[in-house]
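Hi U.,

Before I forget, here's the chain from the pilot set. I'm dumping it here mostly so it's searchable later in email.
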Amino acid sequence: MTSTTPSTVDVILDEHALLALGAGNILVSRILHQSAATDAWRVHVALGALADADRSRVGVAGHVAMLDQIVFHPLDLAAVLDASGQPRSLGWSHTRHVAQPGPERPEGARVVTTAPKEWDGAGVRILDVSP
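Structure:
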């Protein structure tokens, strides 16, 4: 009998998931717990989305910043250029940019959200954590 190692699941929390975490959403909390307890989940946050969430609810950024299992992605030139001309917020664009496949995440990352309709047509995979 052979043992298979589960592959790592990369997820990125959008502005809505960050706000849901601050409001006690159990599904987002479980994802963070799994990422802290195992290597099976890797949680990412685009700093543009974190800034948007903190504008909606002051204090979210400070709370999330204390979670050491999160990989934070700074807003770099490539992300800004990707957001250029987008009708969506910078946080949405930055989240989409980080979710795209790349050298570090060949399959990309699933966007964790409580507002899946906002991601229609964005070309990213979604993990709906709506209550």
